[in-house]
Amino acid sequence: MSKHKKWVLLPEIKDLLDNCKSYAVPSGREQLLAMAMGGEGCGNFEVAYDVPGQGRVVEAEVVRCKNGASVNYTSEYKCPSGICLKGLLC
Questions:
Q1: pTM of the entire predicted model
Q2: 61 and 46 in contact (C-beta within 8 Å)?
Q3: What percent of the chain has pLDDT over 90?
Q4: Which is more confidently placed, 49 or 75?
Q5: Domain count for the chain
Q6: Is 80 contained in some domain?
Q7: Could you tell me if residue 35 is inside a domain?
Q8: How far is the C-alpha of 7 from the C-alpha of 23, rounded, in Å?
């Protein structure tokens, strides 16, 4: 059984999860922070992509803070997927 079958989801999100290559569900807060930070013991992490014709583009910086993590986008955020679901993902 898929990880999300027991969740109540919008049909668009269910379809996205059913058809994506893979996704991870953290087992708890510490694992979630490790995933967000790029691994155990990291204090900050850049979300960056190699874009053909542009080179390396930094989308955001994730920084560990006292109560979790903070995401700072380098410019006005626009949904990269183009499937903004009623403002729930973007």
A1: 0.54
A2: yes
A3: 4
A4: 49
A5: 1
A6: no
A7: yes
A8: 15
Instruction: State mean pLDDT over 75-86.
Output: 60
For 29, the domain range is 11-73
Contacts of 86 (CB under 8 A, 6+ apart): 10
Cα R_g (the chain), whole angstroms? 15
Interacting residues of 56 by C-beta distance below 8 A, sequence separation 6+: 48, 49, 50
Residue 57 β-bridge partners = 49
Give the amino acid at 33.
L
Question: Tell me: the pLDDT tens digits for 19-62?
Answer: 989 888 888 888 888 888 777 777 888 888 898 888 898 888 88
Secondary structure element (H or E) that encloses residue 51, with its range:
strand 44-51
CA distance 43 to 69: 9
Burial of 76 (0-12, 13-18, 19+ CB in 10 A): exposed
